[in-house]
Amino acid sequence: MISITSAEVGMKINEWHRHIQKFNVTDAEMLKYTKAITYYKKAERKIPTISDKIEKAEFYFKLSEVYYHMKMTHISMHYAELSYNIYKKHELYSVRRIQCHFVIAGNYDDLENHEKALPHLQEALKGAELLKSKNTHIYATAFFNLGNCYHKMDNLNKAARYIEQALVQYRKINSDVLPQAYHDLALIYFKQGKKEQAMDCFRKGIRSAVDFKDELFMNLFEALDVLYIRNGDTPKLLNIFSRLENGKGYPYLEELALLGGNLFDYNGKIEDSIICFKKMVYAQKQISKGECMYEI
User: Fold this and answer.
1) Cys-Cys link to 186, which of 104, 161, 202, 288 (CB 3.0-4.6 A)?
2) Which CATH superfamily is domain 1-111 in?
């Protein structure tokens, strides 16, 4: 057998994943999705020839991330566990162990099984606390992911506490996650009826979105303005929906349409509520279509 390393495969995964994150459609297509996964599966057959276990773990971890972003949940979980089982035997790879917990928890969240996500996120935070002086970003992300999970569980008090702590850390390093953290905390405060705190996060979040040229969150802050400050403006909200009708925007469109539908329903605006719920179903179908593209 010819011995190989995973470096080249890892570089290709990183390149492809970068194009996906940027939604650079032309470049992503050039790498084609299905063919790329086919190459990864072929590369996996070479895994027995790799003698370095850490290289194997890196290969599995990269695949777990790719499949996670493609919403191929169970496959992602499988590779994350393979990766974690190697990393847990090597003390020096504490960051990767934390990241494996993030991926596993993210997959549980996608399955709406938040109770199973929590232990992984709590374990990640425990590990991140040991690294807080060296790796502020992962420490902040551990808080943020816990807050996000509690938000999905509708435990708004705990969600707010964790995201508040995440913001403290993200501000220290001026992270580009700030727009999202401010947005999520503003939304939680709005849901709790804490108008003053919500408006403070809203204003700071818009400034950070502008500073980072984050168009996605500029749109999402505009949606918060429509729903919670201007008390609903359906044509304007539909205009925002249209801006989110793309690969990166569909998951946010799904959540936003659900939020709008519930708010309009609560306020007795039944027709507007139905419009939002129809848009939510549309976004779900688009997400599902995207997932089907990658089945092998």
Assistant:
1) 202
2) Tetratricopeptide repeat domain (1.25.40.10)
